Amino acid sequence: MPAILLLLFTVTFAYAQTRAKPFDVVEATIPEMRRAMEQGRVTSRDLVTAYLARIGLYEDKLHCIITVNANVLAEADERDRERAQGRVRGVLHGIPIALKDNILTRDIVTTGGALAFAGYVPPYDATLVRNLRDAGAVIIAKTGMTELANWIAGAPTPMPGNYNAVRGFGYNPYDPRRDPREGFDDGRPVLGTGGSSSGVGTAANFWAANVGTETSGSILSPANQNMLAAVKPTVGRVSRYGVIPITADQDTAGPMARTVTDAAILLGALESASPDGNDAATKACPAPPNRDYTAFLKVDGLKGMRIGIPRAYFYEPLPGSRGRAGGSLNAEQKRLMTEAIEILKQQGAEIVDPADIPSVVATEPGQSFLQWNTCGGLGTNRGRDANCSIVFKYGMKRDFNAWLATLGASAPVKSLTELRQWNLTHTNGGALRFGQSLLDSSDEMNLVGDKARYEADRAKDLALSVTQGIDAVMKSQRLDALLFPGASGAGIAAKPGYPTVIVPFGMVPNAPQGTAFPAGFDAKPSPYGVSFTGLACSEGSLLKMAFAFEQATKRRVKPASVP
Predict the structure, then answer these.
(1) Distance between CA atoms of 554 and 371, rounded to whole angstroms?
(2) DSSP characters over 408-443
(3) C-alpha angle 337/339/341, rounded to 5°?
(4) What pTM does this model have?
(5) Which of 221, 258, 265, 350 has its CA at a distance of 20 to 30 angstroms from the CA of residue 229?
């Protein structure tokens, strides 16, 4: 990227020559940036220049960017001219925002991390991008991600999180080193980044906030691993039109930021003022007045809220299991969650403990959420997929092909089949370092012949996650939210498309199961958060609780590796 490197060098040098005490973007919030611009203390160009300087200093260490917007300074200058003329577009006027690289932008390369799309400039903006630009946002960059949101390679050689063929591995700013262990020393990070929607650049203060996407965990997990606040919205809250899909049954975009306030502001800017005709799911949830989620942010927002603790599996081993099982906690995680529950009580919340999820504690195979997995990769391909859900692999073929059709003649490939063939012919160029068993399993789906099976599996997904799952416990216990450790509730909440807000809370040891780190290797601790999950369209209530918890704790710390 010689042109981009020249741009970064130029602005880094220019920034060093500016006034002695410029506005400090490190850990600066969106309201602080807005006030500084309103008061004339800083311009959008200043903000962009400062962020580009940080990118120039630290991107080689983190690998969290696929493309920097070559026109970003011109966009900032335009926002500054508009402000000088008395025109402020909206809540993000002049604020630099990054996008996951599966979100289409008509003037910035969009790759999804796939070599077949390297250098591709789409013919249109995603709806959410139009909304951001209408709100005045300056799009600064496209973030790293796991290739095609991690629906490329499953068993037998799963693709590691935050790897893609275009940029390679991304690294966590809380320990930006490679894994030294034999068998893991292929360049992957020693501290996981949390998956496909890189929150690395937001944690490292490369921009004000970023937009991620999630099908099952790809907003919440990277937010957890990078000490961010984030909202995984109800499916349909934010339009998916112009976002590279896995399956419309679960896909959503959402905000990732350093504070709950910033996440709330960004969520309002992402949401459309009225339903998007290109995404029928946007009819599901009414927007709050003026799409202003900051109205829910009250320091006493936990008072009187009934919060359930899904103790079985998510906190403690299931009855009858041996030792630590599934999502249950290690000692340090347990200590943090015990502390979090006490803080909730002190802030006036009513804790229901336990509030176990019926389908999680069920032991009958047909009634157990934990025994009903997603089909994908070798071992669950056609003929061997009777005991898992085909919703992802069916949805990927249906929705990916439909998305390609929206690109018209400019599409680099015309179908999922053609993408797989392209990858095979470009293996020597690095297209298939980990194979493509997930794409293979999707492409073998017959969208007509397998439709009845898909519909049955989708119904079972909802029965286990809703009827016998989250709804069952929340309605019987009259709960406002469930409190999950870290991002552990992402999978069950993703099936029905329910919202979750995650808040940074602490650090836990990076102690991977299985192969230990070499003697003398000083593994840095990993960030850890708490998640508030609710029923459909409950983002306002969840943000109220999350904000009150954040204000009572204020546990986020910036990564020391990128001061």
Answers:
(1) 37
(2) GGG-S-SSHHHHHHHHHHTGGGTTTTT--HHHHHHH
(3) 70
(4) 0.94
(5) 350
Other CB atoms within 10 A of residue 538 CB: 22
* Exposure string for 398-421, b = 16+ CB within 10 A, e = fewer: bbbbebbeebeeebbbeebebbbe
- Are 68 and 141 a contacting pair, CB within 8 Å? yes
Q: Residue 63 is encoded by which pair of tokens? A: 């690998």
All structural domains of the chain: 2-301+487-510+530-553 (3.90.1300.10)
C-alpha distances in angstroms, 509 versus 15, 264, 339, 350, 522? 37, 30, 17, 30, 11
What contacts 24+ positions apart, CB below 8 Å, involve 178-187?
180/517, 180/518, 180/521, 181/515, 181/516, 181/517, 181/518, 182/515, 183/515, 184/515
* Residue 163 parent element (H or E): strand 163-164
Q: Take residue 163 and report the two structure tokens written for it.
A: 């790897």
**Residue 369 CA from chain centroid, whole number:** 23
Backbone angles phi, psi at 492, to 5 degrees: -75, -30
Tokens of 290: 């003026």
Give the helix/strand (H/E) hosting 454. Answer: helix 451-462
Q: What is the 3-state secondary structure (H, E, C) of 491-532?
A: HHHHCCCCCEEEEEEEEECCCCCCCCCCCCCCCCCEEEEEEE
Active site amino acids: 100, 196, 218
* pLDDT tens by residue, the chain, 563 residues: 455 555 555 555 554 444 446 899 999 999 999 999 999 999 999 999 999 999 999 999 999 999 999 999 999 999 999 999 999 999 999 999 999 999 999 999 999 999 999 999 999 999 999 999 999 999 999 999 999 999 999 999 999 999 999 999 999 999 999 999 999 999 999 999 998 878 999 999 999 999 999 999 999 999 999 999 999 999 999 999 999 999 999 999 999 999 999 999 999 999 999 999 999 999 999 999 999 999 999 999 999 999 999 999 999 998 765 444 556 799 999 999 999 999 999 999 999 999 999 999 999 989 999 999 999 888 898 889 999 999 999 999 999 999 999 999 999 999 999 999 999 999 999 999 999 999 999 999 999 999 999 999 999 999 999 999 999 999 999 999 999 999 999 999 999 999 999 999 999 999 888 899 999 999 999 999 999 999 999 999 999 999 999 999 999 999 999 99
State the helix-helix crossing angle for 331-346 and 539-553, rounded to 10 degrees: 100
Of 467, 531, 547, 458, give the one whose Cα is nearest residue 499: 531
Query: Which residues are paired to 501 by β-bridges?
Result: 231, 532
Q: CA-CA distances (angstroms) from residue 136 to 79, 81, 106, 255, 279? A: 7, 12, 17, 16, 23
Please state the φ and ψ torsions of residue 34, each to the nearest 5 degrees: -60, -45
Edge-first strand order for the sheet with 229-232 is 65-68, 138-143, 96-100, 209-214, 252-257, 229-232, 500-508, 526-533, 481-485, 306-308, 350-352
Among candidates 102, 111, 76, 80, which has minimal Cα distance to 208? 76
Given a contact cutoff of 8 angstroms between Cβ atoms, the answer to whether 232 and 484 are in contact is no
Of 240, 232, 247, give the one whose Cα is nearest residue 272.
Answer: 240
